[in-house]
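thread: overnight batch results

M.L. [08:02]
morning all. the overnight job finished for the chain we discussed friday. pasting input first so we're all looking at the same thing
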Amino acid sequence: MQQLWPTYGIENIDGLLDFATIFDNPTPVTLEIGFGNGDNLIDMAAAAPGQNFLGIEVHEPGVGHCLLRIEDLKLKNVRLIRDDAVHILNEHIADERLQRVNLFFPDPWHKKRHHKRRIVQRDFAELIAHKLEAGGVFHVVTDWPDYADHIAEVMSTTPRFEQLAAAPSDRPVSRFDSRGVTLGHENWEKAWCTCSKLPISS
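M.L. [08:03]
and the structure it wrote out:
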């Protein structure tokens, strides 16, 4: 964290993020929310050097692991934020500035009394819709069937999104895929796009 964060991390954010300055190019940005140890984020960034990737995660060990992989691969197209994703989206990312948002294996909060803590709620879906450009993609994976049902219900009542026939095929196989197999879970993987330009917020 001490050696690599100043190079790849973003902090002390004041106002809206200027991605063209942060990445030193105008290429569209893919955001991964809750990247864990960063393996998905890094593998996708390494496979697409002409695209920019932003990861948000709160847990320092995962951030540290991700920083080491970025440095090891000498990636120029990845930046990290250690903060609450909803706060960053609300306060520091302008509308229609993201090409894609990935949410892979979010915490299922599987106990019923904790369901309100799940990140995918109607307000969150509306927020993501505003931050994606027209035609932008929201890609979600979970291995918890009841959370999948919850996400499907939320997304079906978010009119700015239209479900894609198939999710993007570029997601790497992760340790969570292996965990799901061990637990006897099947992955539920869906994606939606904002298929028309959003109205200007008042």
